[in-house]
Amino acid sequence: MNGINSHYDCIIIGGGPAGTTAAALVAEAGYSTLLVERAKMPRYHIGESLMPETYWIFERLGVLDQMQASGYPKKVGVQFVNNTGKESSPFFFRTHDDRESSETWHVDRAEFDKMLFDNAAVKGATCCDNTRVLDVLAAGETANERVTGVLLQQAENASIEVVAKVVVDATGQQTLLANRFGLRCENSDLRKAAMWQYYRGAHRDTAGGGVKTVIMHAADKRSWFWFIPMSDDLVSVGVVGDRDYLLKGRGTPAEVFADELKKCSTLEGWLADAQPEDDLQIAREFSYTTTRSAGDGWVLVGDAWGFIDPVYSSGVYFALKSAELAAECIIDGLRIGDTSAATLGRWLPDFGRQIGLIRKLVDAFYSDHFRVGKFIQEHPEHQSELVDMLIGRVFNGCEGRIFEDLEPWLATKAEG
Ligand SMILES: Cc1cc2nc3c(=O)[nH]c(=O)nc-3n(C[C@H](O)[C@H](O)[C@H](O)COP(=O)(O)OP(=O)(O)OC[C@H]3O[C@@H](n4cnc5c(N)ncnc54)[C@H](O)[C@@H]3O)c2cc1C
């Protein structure tokens, strides 16, 4: 089959941010690496707003200069608009920390993912798009089995087996390995759906020298919108709400989207002169965890590991970060000849704990009385940690002190 060998040190399934990062780092360390992506690259993907902490991984991957030259609008902060239409003061990242690394971008994911895919090839990985993994090679059906390779297929060709010491599942929401081993666990309290569309000609606020990701609640707080200004006057606008609320018995998705928009007067105003660019798109069942994330010869990264919620735009950063941490363990394992679950999964406990801080912030956001601006007015001492979390700084000693006051504050509001 097209340039594919029968054996590799590492096979990575999925050419999104997680898979391409893992492939670049493992290949750069000198190990034979195969990256396979079922779609033809570039391919569309939702998730345009990055977290600033991606900066350090871009630097390590050697793509920072490409990002800086990309022309993507700079994301300089985050803003919340509450259900009465009141806009919080923007949380400008550079007011908090005036380094270049405190800002990031709103990207076109097709281009961005393709850049990372090409970078993995530059670093020495064999990168094949249009190539689908049909299954992993394992002696049995449980997560205790060693995974020894993959069964893959290019276009209409016959499938072939390719063997590897390590198989990385970076298949995103497809969760190939978690499905195979029965490890996927839906987050029942985050059973959400999302609908989104791109517009041209919307309101554009460039205060602070760039654009902001804006999170806006609908009047009845049963849904919220994202507003993500992108290049070429495009803006990504999406609504998120409980799956049943958005999708059951309320007419077509376009009707539901229009109904929800009517409940968000600020956004209605911002879109008053805008034209929709294409059809509405829908996602559901996107919040889940995996009950086990590494085994002998295999490890999960990015959305294949789990996904919390889109509200804080953490998905791409966590995909990059999990892949970076997993790649370090894979490289160590290949060097010492130990690709056991213990070695490949060494990064997981810390990662899960620190990601748990964003999960808590997500839970706070969905609680009935979340008003971030008001909370920070009453507890200005937590502003710094909150902005750190919005930047993605949850892996450098962030302890989540904000929750010592935020959770009791939310409880008091609920009682009152
Ligand atoms: C509604 C919504 C809005 C979001 N908004 C944001 C946002 O603003 N900012 C943000 O950071 N994140 C956002 N996210 C999350 C973000 O999109 C993901 O977290 C991110 O794309 C995960 O990267 P990944 O590499 O793990 O997976 P993906 O980017 O999904 O890549 C997985 C790849 O694997 C390939 N694949 C799957 N199965 C196979 C197979 N069998 N063989 C070969 N290839 C395969 C797929 O084609 C895909 O290209 C959002 C998510 C949702 C649902």
Question: Architecture of the largest domain, according to CATH?
Answer: 3-Layer(bba) Sandwich
Overall number of strands? 19
State the separation between the terminal residues, measured CA to CA: 67 Å
The fraction of residues in strands falls at 15-25%
Number of helices: 15
Q: What is the arithmetic mean of pLDDT?
A: 95
Note poorly predicted spans.
none
Helix content: 25-40%
Question: Nearest-angstrom radius of gyration?
Answer: 21 Å
Q: Quick one: CATH superfamily of the largest domain?
A: FAD/NAD(P)-binding domain
Instruction: Identify the CATH class of the largest domain.
Output: Alpha Beta
Number of domains: 3
Shape: globular
Bound molecules: flavin-adenine dinucleotide
CATH topology of the largest domain: FAD/NAD(P)-binding domain
Sheet/helix structural class: alpha+beta
Specify the biggest β-sheet.
9 strands, mixed
Can you put this structure into words, describing what you see?
- The structure is a single chain.
- By secondary structure, the protein is α+β, with helices and mostly antiparallel strands.
- The protein folds into three domains: 198 residues, FAD/NAD(P)-binding domain (3-Layer(bba) Sandwich); 124 residues, D-Amino Acid Oxidase, Chain A, domain 2 (2-Layer Sandwich), CATH 3.30.9.100; 49 residues, no CATH class.
- 35% of the residues lie in helices and 24% in strands.
- The protein is built from 15 helices and 19 strands.
- The strands form three sheets. Strands 3, 4, 5, 11, 12, 13, 14, 15 and 16 form a nine-stranded mixed sheet that branches.
- Strand 8 and strand 9 form a beta hairpin.
- The longest helix has 22 residues.
- The radius of gyration is 21 Å and the shape is globular.
- The chain starts with 6 loop residues before the first strand and ends with a helix.
- 47% of the residues are buried.
- The mean pLDDT is 95.
